[in-house]
Amino acid sequence: MAKLLFLFITFFITLPLSLSQSTAVDSCNGIFLSYNYTSGYPIPPTLVPADPSDQPYRFESILTILNNGLRELKSWRVYVGFEHGEVLVSASNAVLDDGTLLPANVGNGTVFAGFPERDLKTAVETAGDWSQMAAQVRLVGTQFGVAEPDVPLPSTITLANDGFSCPALTKLDSWMHLCCTEDSTRRSNITKGEDFQPFENGDVTIMYDVIHSYETNYWTQVTISIHNPIHQLNNWKLIWEWKRDEFIYAMKGAYPSVIDSTDCIFGKQGEHYKEMDFSNALNCERRPTIIDLPPTMANNSDLGMIPFCCRNGTILPPTMDQSKSVSAFRMQVFKMPNEFNRTQLIPPQNWKIMGEVNQDYQCAPPVRVSPSRFPNPTGLSSESTAIASWQVVCNKTESKGATPRCCVSFSAFFNDSVVPCNTCACGCKSSPSNTCSTSVPALLLPSEALLVPFENRTRKTTEFAKLHNRPLPKPLPCGDNCGVSINWHLNTDYEDGWTARITLFNWDETDIVDWFAALQFDKAVPGIQTMYSFNGSALPGIPANNTIFMQGKPGLNYLLAEKDGKNPKKNPRVPGTQQSVLMFTKKTTPGIKVARGDGFPTKVFFNGEECSLPSALPSNAYRMSVATIFFCFLLAVVALLFLQ
Q1: Is the Cβ–Cβ distance between 212 and 247 less than 8 Å?
Q2: In whole numbers, what is the pLDDT of the chain averaged over residues?
Q3: Cβ of 256: how many Cβ atoms within 10 Å?
Q4: Are 65 and 134 in contact (CB under 8 A)?
Q5: Which member of 91, 406, 580, 612 lies 3.0 to 4.6 Å from 606 by CB, making a disulfide possible if both were Cys?
Q6: pTM over 0.70, yes/no
Q7: How far apart are CA 433 and CA 475, in angstroms?
Q8: What are the b/e assignments for 529-563, b being 16+ CB within 10 Å?
């Protein structure tokens, strides 16, 4: 035993043991637990002496779990009763048992689980190899209000595994310990973080519902739902990280982007499942990427037959089609021996979802929620309930410097010039040739120039500039390089109302199916009355009754790709277009100044992505000049009469 004690001191060299500590380790013939506070100091902001209870302090501690018993400790779990508002920043060799990612608030206590090594072997089976008998968890975090010479120890520590009896702990200055012994009749009173949390809202939510559970594996249904009324996902990809060596054996409604069982064959999975034919397993990657199936697979008995599956990765906003705002699939997940229990269900972590266009989503850790309910597939009025459910909430983040994929031009009835999309609105080559400038503002256009590709506008644009005596820069500005452009034209402005026309242009070589657009205004939205060629309406409260949502009518909700003109040798290519007129009333928007800016959108979204807006509005200088001339004339007449 003396030699074992020497090895213990050597292994935990950063944890110098006093005589009493050595005695405690030496006398434990079960699972020895200790918590040692090693250092700490105040960090900003400085709140003492005004508010000492809220002063933050850094703390560093070491949690030790040592198996001094005769049986291997499987999947160790330890509860630490933090009580000083602790925020845990890092923990080596362990994860939080409820799946929460760090940093995390643990001020009400938390359960640690071993990771990546979860089992602690005995001295007998390892010849006293402490690296296999013990786990050392180095903790770094923030606590509040406990300043030196006081020590921010937790209220308690205890083993959270069933089958052990843990006595009262012993506290010695900055160190606390206890020894838990085997007791097959005891059940841990430490919960596994299974209290149900309330459902949360987000741009995208993901449900992880376990619907069948067996000793070695389970079936889960994953459901992706969009809740943001102006967002969509195209060709979605879903990524997560397995934390306990799980692997995907089968799927319905979706598929891994890579089918590969190599990691299983040569890994721990192959060592345990010796009789399994891994050629049938779909994916053994720690971070698999899941993709949707095409609609042709929806009724396939092997891969489809799952409600809301097989839509080619397209999830539409609920404002467009509620039934198409959801995508779902099922998969069979095999577990490792440490988790062999039909009630031992742990979701993967580090979720990420992205689309072909909208790629910037930040996902929170999965949270245990009340079990989901599903309609009976036979059509009966009863419902089935999931065995366990977790919710992942994802919100779109603003990506600094992201390049738009669409742009907007403005025009109006009182000006014959179109304010075009900005130069390089959707990006330009990093080293463009000398034939165009990436910094010169775009030239005003005649309205007919909107109908032809940028490379065919040069003659029309230069002639239009010369006609209005505008200077032509050398070189001319580069194009906008956008696959989709939108023209907003102020059509009329009269006493009781006004009208506008919106035109969509598709300059890409691919048809755009199920398109939608959303326009935000400062004052105009309450006045919307009619939209003639599109389906659309105001979105109340999104975000403050300032958004108009529109889409094509049924059967016409697509933008054709750009195509050749009638005579490709003479005529320029022709974009796919859709157009509608919108009618507004001024009765519900008193004081609106349509021509002075209130009639133009402040933000425009196409298929969920924000478009680049022009840097200026159409000028009504002609109107102003006439008014000014008339005012000057009137002033001269009055002055003349006064002089007489």
Answers
A1: no
A2: 86
A3: 17
A4: yes
A5: 406
A6: no
A7: 10
A8: eebebbbbebbeebeeebbbbbbbeeeebebebbe
Residue 223, judged by CB atoms within 10 A of its CB (0-12, 13-18, 19+), counts as buried
Locate 338 and state its tokens.
């440490």
SS3 106: coil
**What residue type is 66 in one-letter code?**
L
Cα 625 to Cα 44, 619, 621, 629, 630: the distances in Å are 60, 11, 6, 6, 9
Q: For residues 476 and 442, what is the distance between their CA atoms, to the nearest angstrom? A: 8
- Contacts of residue 334, defined as CB under 8 A and 6 or more positions apart, other chains included, come to 216, 217, 246, 247, 249, 269, 273, 281
What values do phi and psi take at 50, rounded to 5?
-65, -45
* Helix pair angle (2-11, 19-27), 10° resolution: 120
Helix, strand, coil proportions of the chain in percent (round to 5)?
15, 35, 50
The C-alpha atoms of residue 596 and residue 395 are separated, in whole angstroms, by 35
**DSSP E strand boundaries for 10-109:** 31-42, 56-67, 77-80, 87-91, 94-96, 104-105
Q: What is the pLDDT of residue 639?
A: 39
The DSSP secondary-structure symbol of 595 reads I
DSSP 8-state class, residue 296: G
| 156 CB neighbour count, 10 Å cutoff | 18
Q: What is the pLDDT of residues 154-173, one digit of tens each?
A: 999 999 988 899 998 999 88
Residue 431: pLDDT band by 50, 70, 90 thresholds?
Answer: low
Closest CA to 126 of 213, 224, 11, 48: 11
Of 212, 160, 166, give the one whose Cα is nearest residue 189.
160
Which DSSP symbol is given to 612?
A: B
Nearest Cα neighbor of 387 from 440, 343, 333 is: 343
User: With the C-alpha atoms ordered 565, 571, 572, 575, is the resulting torsion angle positive or negative?
Assistant: negative
- Helical (H) or strand (E) element with 535: strand 534-539
Q: What is the DSSP letter of 404?
A: P
Q: How many residues does the chain have?
A: 644
pLDDT tens column, 329-364: 999 999 998 788 888 888 999 999 998 776 678 898
Q: Is 323 in a helix, a strand, or coil?
A: helix
∠ Cα 390 281 393 (to 5°):
20
Specify whether the CB–CB gap between 554 and 519 falls below 8 A: no
* The pair of three-digit structure tokens given for residue 559, joined into one six-digit string: 């933008």
Amino acid, single-letter form, for residue 318: P
Taking Cα atoms as reference points, which of 145, 161, 147, 162 lies closest to residue 107?
A: 145
Which amino acid is residue 417, in one-letter code?
S
- The encoded tokens of residue 542 equal 């999104």
Whether omega for the bond prior to residue 554 falls within 30 degrees of 0, making it cis, is no
End-to-end CA distance of the chain: 124
Question: What are the φ/ψ torsions at residue 315 (nearest 5 degrees)?
Answer: -125, 120
**Which residue's entry shows tokens 């992201």?**
402
